[in-house]
Amino acid sequence: MECVRVGEALKIIKYLLLIFFIISFIIFLLPFLLKGILNIGNIGGMIVSLGCFLIIFFNKPLHHLIFSKIILSFIIIILAIISTCSYKILTNMNILPQEETTVVVLGCRVKHKKPSLALKERLDKTYQYLNENPKVQCILSGGQGANEEISEAKCMYQYLVSKGIDPHRLYQEDKSTSTRENILFSYQLIKKENLPKAITIITNEFHEYRAQTIARRLNIKSYAISAHTAWWLFPTYFVREIFGIVYEFIF
C-alpha cells in the first residue's frame, strides 16, 4: 500500500513538472510570437524547457555513473550561476539617488523610428522621473544600429519632447553601441557639459545590475531607477541578461 502511494505521488510530481515545462516553453515563445523577438534568452529558455520536458516524459534514467556525475556537476554549476546572477539583479533594481545626479537613459532597439516596447518602458519611467525632478538634466544614450532608421538617442529625444519635456534638459549621445559605451560616452558628455558627475541610470530592472557594475568599473558613482518590464518579456530578457553578466565578468 505504501509503495502504491509513493508511486502515485511520483506520478503527480511528474505530471506537474511536465505542465510546468510546457508553460515555461510557451512563456519563452511568447516574445517571438507577439513581437518577433528572438535572442539567446528565449532560445536558451525554450531549449532548456523542451529538454527537461523530454527527459521527464520519456523517464530515461542515466545508467552510466560517470556521465551522471558530469551532468550533475554541470547542473550544479549552472544553478549556482543563475542563483548568484538572480540575486544580484533583484537586489540592484532600485538604488535611489542620495545627491544631485545626471540621469542617463540606456538605449534599446528602435523600430520604424519609434521605440520598441522595452525602450518605451524606459522612456515612460524617465518621463515620470523628470517630471518629479524638474531640475534634473538627462543624457539619452544610444547609437544607430544597422537595422534602425534613426539613432536610439534621437528616438528617445523625440518621444520625451512630444510628451512635454523641455528639450533643453535633454542631451543626445548617439555613438554608443553597447551598455559599456552607453555609460562611458555619456560620462564624457557629462564632463564636457559640466553636468553633475554622479549618474542615475534608467533602464529595465533586469539590466540595472550589469549597468551598475560597468559604472563602478569605470569609477563612476551611480544610482538606479528601474523601468517595469512586461511580464511576458521579463523571463526572456532575464535569461539573456544572465548571459550578459557572465560575458561581462569573463571578458
How are the strands of the biggest sheet laid out side by side? 5-4-1-6-7
Average pLDDT reading: 91
Q: What coarse outline follows from CA principal-axis ratios?
A: elongated
Q: Over all CA atoms, what is the radius of gyration? A: 22 Å
Number of helices: 8
Main sheet properties? 5 strands, parallel
Q: How do the SSEs run, as a string of H and E? A: HHHEEEHEHEHEHEH
Helix content range of the residues, please? 55-70%
The CA-CA distance between the termini, in Å, is 57 Å
Question: Low-confidence segments, ≥5 residues, pLDDT <50?
Answer: none
What percentage of the residues does DSSP assign to strands (E)? Answer: 5-15%
Total count of strands: 7
> What class would the helix/strand composition place it in?
alpha/beta
Report on this structure.
With 251 residues, this protein is an alpha/beta fold. It is 60% helix and 12% strand. The chain is built from eight helices and seven strands. The strands form two sheets. It has a five-stranded parallel sheet with strand order 5-4-1-6-7. A two-stranded antiparallel sheet has the order 2-3. Strand 6, helix 7 and strand 7 form a beta-alpha-beta unit. Helix 2 (40-58) crosses helix 8 and helix 7 (205-217) packs parallel to helix 8. The longest helix is centred in the N-terminal third of the chain and has 34 residues, at 2-35. It is elongated and about 75 Å long. The mean pLDDT is 91.
